[in-house]
Amino acid sequence: MRKDKNTAISLRKEGNSYNQISEQLGVPKSTLSYWLKDLSLSKKAREKINKRAYNKSVNALVKRNKEQTDIAKRKAETAKRKARSEVCELLDNKLFLLGTALYWAEGYKKGAYDISKSKTVDFTNSDPEMVKLMIRFFRDIAQVDKYRIKIQIIVHHNVNKEEAINYWSKKINIPKNQFTKVCYSKNRHSKTKRNPNSLPYGTLHIRISDIKVFYRIIGWIEEIKSNHSHILN
Length: 233
Description:
Elements: H1 2-13, H2 18-25, H3 29-36, H4 43-90, H5 94-106, E1 121-125, H6 128-141, E2 150-155, H7 161-172, E3 183-184, H8 190-193, E4 203-208, H9 211-228
Parallel strand pairs: 2-3
Antiparallel strand pairs: 1-4, 2-4
């Protein structure tokens, strides 16, 4: 036992971990902890141990992230596959066809094909009638509760934010407490390049933070695009 202890001390001073020493000597880590608890290590040995621990932690994090990504991909494919199977029963529903086609054209889709992107439903337009139609689509077809729908308005600097919120709230029948902070257009030349009356109440985003709804709509689009695009001709 004394020989094992001396060997353990030597190995530890060389910068070996408890796991490495335990495997080499066949000594439990609890025993090593008792033997080596008061051992002073050189700076070089301590750096070697810390570097190994850091690399182990990074590798574990990378592995865990990869596993989580793989799980997310499988869930997304399952959700889209289920959504695609629903299309045949929905083809006679005009609201389904209009809403899916409009989201295909104007909705946010990048998140479905890029793991680093958001998976939020986001439809953008400045036409009140189209916005109302899409809200009906989200509520009646995608079965989203009205109070889970969030609205954001993007305006140019010449637009009064309160007037824009009042206008859209009345037009689309969504209460003001479901509107998020109004944003100004990032185009700093908009004052001079834009007609002040071209978008008097800004552009509206309908947002729904629900990954299942997002992939359901993507699945509908993929099915129509692949097997039923002739009905839109």
